[in-house]
Amino acid sequence: MNVTTSLLITLAVTSAVSCKARDEASAPAHGSATVQGSADEHAPAEVHDAAAPGNPVQNEMRLLTSLLEASIRGIGARDVRPIEHELHRLHAAKEATEAALHDGSYRLPKSPDQLAAFAALDEAFHKDLEGLAEASHANDVPRAAEAVGAILRGCQGCHATFRP
After folding, report:
1. Domains defined for the chain, CATH in brackets
2. pLDDT in tens, 74-132
3. Angle of the 141-162 helix axis to the 3-25 helix axis, nearest 10
4. pTM of the prediction?
5. Contacts of residue 68, Cβ cutoff 8 Å, sequence gap at least 6
6. What DSSP string describes 50-93?
7. Secondary structure class of 111 (helix, strand, coil)
8. What pLDDT, on a 0 to 100 scale, did the predictor assign at position 30?
């Protein structure tokens, strides 16, 4: 089994467990009715804010995890439109990461001398995210699935070089 397939399976299982726990926590009281098609149906998953505790890269990765989980849910539901909101939050986190790297308030813990390589990988990664944004905007589920695969393929190289 290749890395991308393994990651997609892991994300799907994580998403399913997360959805089940969230559904159980928000289940209506006995005898209550639920309304199909409510506004919550397309609400993004709860995610950490770009200003959450931790360093900027950790915050960006938390938002990425939320985005990937939402993408898997959307692909399964055949509705990837809600992903676009998650992408905007991730873009704001990218800007926070870039600012912290530029002003020196964050230093790469592994391979800190390869900042240019990190920036290049980050740009390529965000280019793949643009494909997901376009697919989400058009509710193009097959294209969203391809974009998620491209995003996941980019994770391994960056983590191998920069993740401690």
Report:
1. 3-18+56-162 (1.20.120.10)
2. 999 999 999 988 898 898 899 999 999 999 999 999 999 999 999 899 888 888 899 99
3. 110
4. 0.66
5. 11, 148, 151, 152
6. TTSSS-HHHHHHHHHHHHHHHHHHHHHHT--TTHHHHHHHHHHH
7. coil
8. 37
